[in-house]
Structures are given as structure tokens and as C-alpha cells.
What we know:
By secondary structure, chain A is α/β, with parallel strands linked by helices. The first copy, chain A, has 3 domains: about 15-105, Winged helix-like DNA-binding domain superfamily/Winged helix DNA-binding domain (Arc Repressor Mutant, subunit A), CATH 1.10.10.10; about 110-120 and about 375-489, Alpha-Beta Complex (Aspartate Aminotransferase, domain 1), CATH 3.90.1150; about 140-370, Type I PLP-dependent aspartate aminotransferase-like (Major domain) (Aspartate Aminotransferase, domain 2), CATH 3.40.640. In chain A, about 40% of the residues lie in helices and about 15% in strands. Chain A is built from 16 helices and 15 strands. Chain A has helices at about 15-30, 40-50, 55-65, 90-95, 120-135, 150-165, 180-190, 205-215, 235-240, 270-285, 340-350, 360-370, 375-395, 425-435, 450-455, 470-489, and strands at about 70, 75-80, 110, 175, 195-200, 215-220, 255, 290, 315-320, 335, 400-405, 415-420, 435, 440, 460-465. In chain A, the strands form 4 sheets. In chain A, strands 4-10-9-8-7-5-6 form a 7-stranded mixed β-sheet, sandwiched between helices. Chain A is globular. Chain A starts with 15 loop residues before the first helix and ends with a helix. At the A-B interface, helix 4, helix 5, helix 6, helix 7 and helix 8 of A face helix 4, helix 5, helix 6, helix 7 and helix 8 of B.
Amino acid sequence: xxxxxxxxxxxxxxxxxxxxxxxxxxxxxxxxxxxxxxxxxxxxxxxxxxxxxxxxxxxxxxxxxxxxxxxxxxxxxxxxxxxxxxxxxxxxxxxxxxxxxxxxxxxxxxxxxxxxxxxxxxxxxxxxxxxxxxxxxxxxxxxxxxxxxxxxxxxxxxxxxxxxxxxxxxxxxxxxxxxxxxxxxxxxxxxxxxxxxxxxxxxxxxxxxxxxxxxxxxxxxxxxxxxxxxxxxxxxxxxxxxxxxxxxxxxxxxxxxxxxxxxxxxxxxxxxxxxxxxxxxxxxxxxxxxxxxxxxxxxxxxxxxxxxxxxxxxxxxxxxxxxxxxxxxxxxxxxxxxxxxxxxxxxxxxxxxxxxxxxxxxxxxxxxxxxxxxxxxxxxxxxxxxxxxxxxxxxxxxxxxxxxxxxxxxxxxxxxxxxxxxxxxxxxxxxxxxxxxxxxxxxxxxxxxxxxxxxxxxxxxxxxxxxxxxxxxxxxxxxxxxxxxxxxx
Amino acid sequence: xxxxxxxxxxxxxxxxxxxxxxxxxxxxxxxxxxxxxxxxxxxxxxxxxxxxxxxxxxxxxxxxxxxxxxxxxxxxxxxxxxxxxxxxxxxxxxxxxxxxxxxxxxxxxxxxxxxxxxxxxxxxxxxxxxxxxxxxxxxxxxxxxxxxxxxxxxxxxxxxxxxxxxxxxxxxxxxxxxxxxxxxxxxxxxxxxxxxxxxxxxxxxxxxxxxxxxxxxxxxxxxxxxxxxxxxxxxxxxxxxxxxxxxxxxxxxxxxxxxxxxxxxxxxxxxxxxxxxxxxxxxxxxxxxxxxxxxxxxxxxxxxxxxxxxxxxxxxxxxxxxxxxxxxxxxxxxxxxxxxxxxxxxxxxxxxxxxxxxxxxxxxxxxxxxxxxxxxxxxxxxxxxxxxxxxxxxxxxxxxxxxxxxxxxxxxxxxxxxxxxxxxxxxxxxxxxxxxxxxxxxxxxxxxxxxxxxxxxxxxxxxxxxxxxxxxxxxxxxxxxxxxxxxxx
Lengths: 489, 489
């Protein structure tokens, strides 16, 4: 029988039984107590270590449960053959050498996707999380509802009705880990090989997701979108638009729009045009509109613009929303609202998919909404973003190199024309070289041809302010001053 | 100026300033303090309520931040027009009436996907979560790495190497919210319109995901999988297999297998056959093998079967793993290991996708792995599942209606032949009517034709024991006894 001496001093926070367990486990793993060896009885070891017998029993129970030792009735405890056990300690402890990645931490990140991370109510989030982990326990491990927890979907339906005029029930809502995942589901739901019209410039991620998942994408110029001829589009060639894949000339039955706040232009679609879209969709059974309502929570002047879905009387709008802007992109929670006509098809074609949002995350978010924290957070953030918006706008207006500013009074970025001889790409390149993460309008040109072909358009920069404080904005603008003035010399 | 009386008694946990804030907010929302009305000065209200002035200031600050009041210099605080604010209280509070869903709570759920939720170390998980929410804060809201946090991927690489012999670096790992999402990415990565061979019976979810995302799926009988002719398959018609979509006869360049523990049969692929698969894949550039290593953590006899990837010398295996079995399906964390040859293509075609696992979840899991909790949990669960396995096996062997039992000594379910005149569907239907959630082998028949055509095969039931305790197993078996005996009368 082996003798066991455990150092029970130091590291006061670890319970005694854990120290004994750890010590014996290491001795077994490293071969100092060999396979088949008998351990001292709990009574003997407790006496040697001057701890209670139950402390030793707890340590032995742990070792038993994890397969390091076995109990033989009336004989005692013996060390097992541990060659089949997982002992990852060595590998797990290695400190990962993360490859250098562009992080923008050192400089200024004008990304239009960045959100304010300073004012998030972490204390509330932590409290909700702790309560859920204490109270719900096993429910958290159940696979849960494929569309998402009913309570959360119901709370989202309530929020959407109040804030966006969206008319829906919880049964129409499908949660997903981000817009792109839901867009992949839409392709499966509505069928691959279809043609969808998208505004250009627009969200490159949505464009690439649709292409990647199997839709032909045709583009039309945002703003000119609703010209008289658009709903009659039948073949890509006729309009000279760029098609993502060779299309057989199928009539576009789908249109993707951002009517309340177009990205990246920031325009709002007039009501009359919305009605035209809706009546176009109502003409044929398989026509649908996808409304991406990405950041309409943040509008700083006037009342919120109602959603397209709120005016839909024929069940033609698939509404797509996200918590990426209103809380944070890292949350990875988006949702789509399916019109009733698509629900049966969804259950048949996509009903077998598990929800992609962890159940714990859903429960936290549910309580965050239910208890009014989301509403308070939104109202507070709108004030904070408005101050940032006003500050950036004021700073820009002082500058002679700043031309037309658009997309103001809503969202989390401004679109700024720059008076310079540099082309947009060169301007962005120089900014990046100085540590400024910035994008130009042409990066959201889905056809990737606009400014390069026509030439001579002034650069237009997207200045996102969501993630920046005033000092950071000032520093970023000072560097842009420098770059533009250098060029003028 | 309005007079404000706040009840500061009761609900002792809420800070005073919160009570004042709440009271005034409700007064404004419900119109009792009208728009434009002046609020009392902080000094006056503090005096009236007998609280400190800073308490009132905090309440006013909150109201200011959320847009309920505005401050006018030298004049005081005035109530805003709140028609544009979010006030969701009413809707959010409604108690959702969740529609009745089949939950299996009342009866016995023999699902092969269920896991033990009783022994999960919630206390540790909660502690890690609380620490992260306290320490990391703003990092949790950053969008994070598109493939997943580097530290977690590195820890997974370490685990896979130690436990499964998988040879990979963190850069080859892509995290995703479940296997199905990663399978959709695989289709985009390797190209739609391709033909993939799958064993039958198999995972219906993987089958449906591949079909839905755009691959032609051909089936071959599991077990007969590696017959001499299989790698030369060229057109579906020749083999009489079922094709998921009309295929142009493209040669299958992809094979999906579960070599370490076939689902649902529970078989292990012999080493020689693995080598044949690998050398078949090595013959052509665009041939790849998808290894779904879904539950190989749990093997109760002998050493773990090494992964197919561990024997791959030509970079032909895409390894797919999940925490759904080893922790819980609700976690929604899976990962794929791409061979180096596919990495550049992944970055080009799929690099724009955001990771679908929330950053907080990733950080928790990273620490759970890094600090050895995962290893301990696995070793402990293996012991617990082994006891459940042995118990169920013992109970089954006592029963005359139980024929051949297969798939034992690994995973979380047994495959049990039932001696009865009933067909499988009828048996499962009757079990469901008695509250037993159970599935038969034919439900995993991807061609949906096998037993119905040939007729006369004895029912084979999948008895999952992961989520059941001994009492529940006994109760479930007693009901099965009753159903089978009723039929014999």
C-alpha cells in the first residue's frame, strides 16, 4: 500500500478534498502510484492528513467517478488502468500563440458595424445569467425548440409590434445565429436557383450568402430601385445588371430591401414606393419581399419609420431583424418573421434543423426583454448614439475637405464625400497605413465596378461612430486631415 | 411644476434612485406628468423625499439618458415628447401561452440524442461565467474571430490530438452553431451540385442538410459500404440507389462516414477499410472524406477507436466534431477540422461569415477546457453512462421479447431487435400512445424504403439511455413489456 502525503497549505480557496483529489490524481497520472496499487483506507488517510474522514471520502468519490480508482468490496480502493482516460492537462495548459491579426485596437476603427461596448449593462446581464444557472439548470441542457424558445419569440413579437409595427405571432418567428444563417434557411425555404433583386450598393454579406447558397442575384441601383420598369424585369441581360451566376432568365420573384434605413446609403424608402413593392409581390404566388430591418432602432430625429411588414396585407414580407446592432454582434442572435403562407413550408423543409442559438443565451435574452432591460438599454443607447452622431457631424462640418454628408440622423454611421484628388481606394489605403480602419462606398458596391469604370467620382467614406468615443473620433479625424492635406501639397 | 411623491418603502433590494426613477417614468408614460411639464429641482425633491441630493440626481440622470426628460441650462428639467420612445412594458409582461408540444416529460424519452443533464457541473459553469462577465466585459461584445476564438480552437486542437489522435492546428478549426450549419458551409466550400455517398441507415439531419443545401446524395448500405466496387460508382442508376436529386451522373467525389461509431448501427469501421477509403480519396484532387465523429467520447470497453483523420496522410479528411453529446445539444457548439489544402479556399469562399457561436459561450467553453473541467466531466460521464449502459443491457437480457442487441459498449443507445408480429411503425406508434418516445431503425433509413419493401423484418428499436435514470428505464421497459405481451395474446 502506498503512502500519500498531501500539501494542504496554500491556495486557500480550493477545498481540502480537491487538494487531496488533485494530488492523488497527479500521482496516478504520472505513474508514481502504479496500476493495481492499493490506496490507504479513508480512515487511515484522514488520520495521517489530520482532516475529517468525509473529506477523504469526497476525494475518493471524485477519483472513483472519473475512473482513476476502483472500489473492491471489503478490500479497499485500487488504482485503475488509466490508459483509456482523457488526460489533457499537458496540452490544455500550453499558452496559445495567437497569430497577429489586424485588430484596429491601436488606431481608430470607423467600422459601420461597430457598436458601443462601454455602456452595456453587464451587471444586469451577469445577474440574469447567474439566476438562470442557479434556477433552471437541467432545462438549459435540453435541446429546446427548433425555432427558438417560445417565451423569447413571444417577447420579440411584442417588441416588434410596439417598436416596428410588425404584426406577427411567436409561431411566425425563427431564431438564428446571425442574419447569414437565416438567409441560408431562406434559400432552402424558397428554393435554390431562384433570382433575387438587391439594391446596389448594399450589404456584401447578404449578397455573398445568397450567391453562396444558390440564388442568382441581380442588382439595381439603390434609389433608382423603384423606377417604373423594375417590376417587369425578366432577364438579366436586358437590364445590363450583374448576375451572380449565369441565369436562365427566370423572372425575379424575390426582392431584398432595407426600406427603413438603406445600408450603406442611409436612405428611407417613401411610402408610395413601399406600396408599389407590396402590390408587385401580391401579383404572383411565389413573389416575396425580404425586409432587412438591421438598425432601425436608432433614429435621432422624428419618429421611427414603420416597417414594410406593417403595411403588408397579403403575407408577402419576410422580416429580418437582429440584436447585433441593438445589443452586440457577438451575441449572434437574429430572427426572421415568416408570413403565415410560408409557415407550413418552413416546417416541412426546414423544421428538422435545431435552433442555432444556445438555449442559455435565449433564456438570458428572454428575461432581458421581459423585465424591460432591453427597452431601457435601447432608449439609453439612442441618447448616447445621438450625442456621438451630433459630435461627429459637428466635427465634420468644420472641415473644408468634407463635401456632402448623407445618411445622417439614423443608424450608426455617416456617409461623407471627400474633396480630394485621391481615389477612394488610395485614400482608404493611406488611412489604414496610419492605423485608421475605414471603408469607402465602393466596398459595398456589389457589382464591384461602379467608380472604377466611370472614374472621377469623389471618394465617399463610411464613418461609423458606434464604437468610438469623442477622443477617438477626434484622433481619427485628425489623421484624415493630415492625409488629405498631405495630398494637396 | 408637478409634485412628486414616491413610495420608498418595501422591496428593499431595489436602490432608492431606482425607485424614484421608476416612479417618475411611470408617471410620464401614463401621462400623469404631461409633456413639457417642469420637474422639481433635485434639491427640492431630495428634501421632500428625505433622501440625498445625489440619489435624486442619479434618478434624473437615468431619465435623461433614456430620453424621458431633458435638461435646460439654468431652467431645470422638463418632460420630453416620448411618443418615439420604446415602452414595451405592457406587451412584454404578457404571459405567453405556449402551444402544447410533445415533450415526453411525462413519459420516458428513449431518444438516442438525449444526454444526462443531472450530472453537469453547473456550479463550475456558473462560476466561470460570472468571472468572465466580471473580468472581460467589453471583449465579450466584440464581433470576434470568424472561425472562433483562437484560444478555444487551440484548446480543441489539443483535446482532439490527445483524445482522438487528430493532427491539426487551431488555424484548421472552424466553430459553428451545430453540425448542420457546418455541413451547409461544407457545401459552399466544396461546391453545390456535387454528389456525396452516405451510409444507410444514417443521420437523417446530415442527409437532409446536404440535400437542402445542394448536394446529390447517393446511399450505400452501411456495413456493405466498402465492397469492392464502391469507389468506382459513377452514376446513381447503375447501383439502384436512391438519389436525392436528379443527378447528371457525376462521379461521387465525396463520402460521409462515421468510422468510429456508425449511427445508428454502432459499428466500427475496420482499419483496412479505412485505408481503402483514404487511398480512394488520395487518387483525385477533388475527392474528400467527411468524418462525423459524433459520440466517440463514450466507449466503455477497450481503448478509444482512433479517428480516420489520424491515419490521413494526404489531407483528405474533413473532421466534424461536436459538444452536443459530450456536454449538451443545447450548447450548440460543433467544429470542423479542415485539411490544409482547403484552408485557402475556405477563407476565399466562406471567410466573410461571422462565427455563429456567441463569444461569451466560446470564452466559457475555452476556460472549461483549459482548466481541465471538460476532461474531468468526460471521465466522470463515461463512468455514469457505462453504469446506465450496463443496467439497460442487463434489463434487456432478462426479456424474452428481446432478440439481437447491437451497438453496445459505446455511445448512448442500444439497437434492439424485438420478437413480435407487429411491424416497427406500429410498435413505435403504440409506444408513443403510452407516453414512450422511441424510434425504430427504419426512421434512419435515408431511402425510406427498406423494411416496407422487403417486409417481415423484425422491428429494431433504438433505446437511448443518456437522458434516463434507472427508474425511468425500468418504467419505459415495463410499458414495452406490456405492449409486446398484449400483442401476443
